[in-house]
Hints:
Blueprint lengths: L12 E3 L4 E3 L2 E2 H5 L5 H10 L5 H15 L5 H12 L4 H9 L9 H14 L4 H15 L16 H12 L5 H17 L7 H11 L7 H22 L3 H11 L12
Antiparallel strand pairs: 1-2, 2-3
Helix pairs in contact: 3-8, 3-10, 3-11, 4-5, 4-11, 5-11, 6-7, 6-9, 6-10, 7-9, 8-10, 9-10
Amino acid sequence: MSFMPDKQTTSIATHTNQDIFVRDKSLCRDLIGKVSFTEMSYFQITGRMPNPAQVKMLDACLVTLMEHGLTPSALSSRLIYSSAPEAMQAAIAAGLMGVGSVFAGTMEGCAELIKRLIDSKNQLEDEADSVAREFHLSKLPVPGFGHHLHKPDDPRSIRLLLIADELGLTGQWINALKHLSTAIDKRYKKHITINATGAIAACLGDCGINAEIMRGFALITRCAGLVGHIHEEQHKPAMRVIWESSEAAIPYDGNISEDYD
């Protein structure tokens, strides 16, 4: 049973007649016009103001995840918007519901594996091999690894890990990810790329972001990306073509008769 305090409180925000306060900082005097959206997001979520290197790393991760083309989340937003253009929020919400274990949300699963390596009492190499062995035997995909297009390596991951090195942020999370990558290649007897969500999980971890909230950052940036898809749908509607293409690509396979006599 979780701990329940005698009195529930919030540490995030309050207000007076003269001002609004977010985590003890004045919104009007300390934050508006003085911090970026990325800085504010990190601060509001974690309660800490990020340092310049963390801001650049988080920016890089958010840019990486913002756009994926006509993936299920974007298609969902466009489809709902074409059905209910008066409710843009519903269209965006529909798209965000698609940020799960296949697209973007896999960073959460990879982060849990990395944390397992970091927290283990075993040697890093031994724990990495245990994880690789478990997934190999289960035949389940390893979160944060593999991509159907980007082979032998995901260029986004290469870039993100390079940025982490340049910023001096490479720490135990990225180190553990690299050990896991080596163990997976050895166990599977072939190279399996670290995909973008795997690299982002490690980079966010070395920025001090907890594994359980990482998917939230994917939601923040995907929300902006989906707004872009809605805006394009407003000016270059595509859903009617996509709808008709779907009907043509997936024909009805039953038996019907037009003889009603």
